[in-house]
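Weekly structure sync, notes
Attendees: PL (lead), two postdocs, one rotation student
Agenda item 3: pending single-chain targets
PL asked that the sequence for the first pending target be pasted directly into the notes so everyone works from the same version. It is reproduced below exactly as submitted, 154 residues in total.
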Amino acid sequence: MDNIDRADEDLPDLNSLLCFTVYSAGHAFNKVYKPLLDELGLTYPQYLVMVALWAGDDQSVGELGEKLFLESSTLTPLLKRLEAEGLVSRRRDTADERVVRITLTDQGRALKSKATTIPACILKATGMTITELRALGEQMAILRRNLRQAGLEG
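Predicted structure, written out during the meeting:
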C-alpha cells in the first residue's frame, strides 16, 4: 500500500502539464470558432484548408498537407467534402498524373468575404494584444518544430 501512495506522489498535477494546457486551449479555440464557422458551413479543419487556399490557390494535396501538418489520408476526405459543397475542385496535374491539384471554385472564392471577420473575433476572445499573440505563436511554432524533430528521432 505504501508503494502505491508514493507512486501517486510522483504523478504531476494535471494543470502543470504543458501538453494539457495546449490540448485544453485547443478545445477552447474550437468552442469560439464553432459558431463563427457554422455560419460559413465549415468545420475547423475545412476552414484551415480554405485559409490555405485563399492565401494561394491551385495547390497540390501534398503542398496543402505540408502547410497544415496533415497526412493525405486525413486531408483527402476533407477535400472531398469541400468539393461536394462546391467550394473546391480536384483535378490531376497535367505534368504528373500522380499529383492531385486543388483549386477554389467561384463559390469558394466568394466565401472568403464572409470569413474576414473571424480573425478579429478570435483576437477579441483571447483578451490578448496582437503583439502578445504573435509572440505566443512564434513560441508555439518553435515548440511544434522541436517536438516534430524529436518524434522523427524517436
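Discussion points:
- The mean pLDDT is 92.
- DSSP finds eight helices and three strands in the chain.
Action: rotation student to compare against the earlier draft before next sync.
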